[in-house]
């Protein structure tokens, strides 16, 4: 089972690493990070790097495509090399998935037109400009396409996907292995619940 995760400059690390940490446990899983060129690809703003061991052109098929998001995703919405590759991978995939603003890349590739989808709350207008219908759910299944909302929701998506790739018991065992038992210290994880002071700080550029 080949799981392919494309990387690009200014991706968000947890978008890729969260699902990776779940899916690597699945029987037969082969996870491959790819990019336009091999080597280190850097997150932003702290310059964490993941290594792409293959280029986009080296990979012509996968069972699961997992597209992360991040600030760099918006700069690639007209990058036909990447978008064409996403379309080709989707053509043969069992599952095509995204985390956060990775859904913008699926949408720009023409895969979400007319479908319900989710993304980071700050990118709803861009998502809908490509013909998708935004829903605020953390994980949205539409046929073989799965979109997850902002950053941390990629773990939820990967666990839901693990249950379909293997079975519920396996997914629950993985959840136990990573001790994923969220009990956040603050109830500020969505625009509907966050206090105005937190929204104001974010608007001034904390992220």
Automatic annotation (TrEMBL):
<dbReference type="InterPro" id="IPR029062">
    <property type="entry name" value="Class_I_gatase-like"/>
</dbReference>
<feature type="domain" description="DJ-1/PfpI">
    <location>
        <begin position="1"/>
        <end position="162"/>
    </location>
</feature>
<dbReference type="GO" id="GO:0006355">
    <property type="term" value="P:regulation of DNA-templated transcription"/>
</dbReference>
<dbReference type="InterPro" id="IPR052158">
    <property type="entry name" value="INH-QAR"/>
</dbReference>
<dbReference type="InterPro" id="IPR002818">
    <property type="entry name" value="DJ-1/PfpI"/>
</dbReference>
<protein>
    <submittedName>
        <fullName>DJ-1/PfpI family protein</fullName>
    </submittedName>
</protein>
<dbReference type="Pfam" id="PF01965">
    <property type="entry name" value="DJ-1_PfpI"/>
</dbReference>
């Amino acid at each position: 089972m080949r799981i392919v995760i494309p990387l690009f400059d200014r991706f968000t690390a947890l978008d890729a690493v969260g699902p990776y940490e779940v899916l690597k446990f699945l029987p037969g899983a082969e996870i491959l990070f790819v990019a336009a060129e091999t080597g280190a690809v850097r997150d932003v703003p702290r310059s964490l790097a993941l290594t792409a061991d293959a280029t986009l052109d080296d990979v012509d098929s996968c069972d699961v495509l997992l597209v992360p998001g991040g600030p760099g995703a918006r700069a690639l919405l007209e990058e036909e090399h990447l978008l064409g590759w996403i379309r080709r991978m989707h053509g043969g995939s069992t599952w095509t998935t995204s985390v956060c603003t990775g859904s913008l890349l699926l949408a720009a590739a023409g895969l979400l037109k007319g479908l319900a989808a989710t993304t980071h709350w700050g990118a709803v207008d861009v998502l809908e400009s490509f013909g998708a219908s935004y829903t605020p759910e953390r994980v949205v299944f539409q046929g073989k396409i799965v979109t997850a909302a902002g950053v941390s929701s990629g773990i939820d998506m990967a666990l839901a996907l693990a249950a379909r790739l293997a079975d519920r018991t396996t997914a629950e065992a993985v959840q136990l292995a990573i001790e994923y038992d969220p009990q956040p210290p603050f109830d500020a994880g969505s625009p509907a619940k966050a206090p105005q002071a937190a929204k104001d700080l974010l608007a001034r550029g904390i992220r």
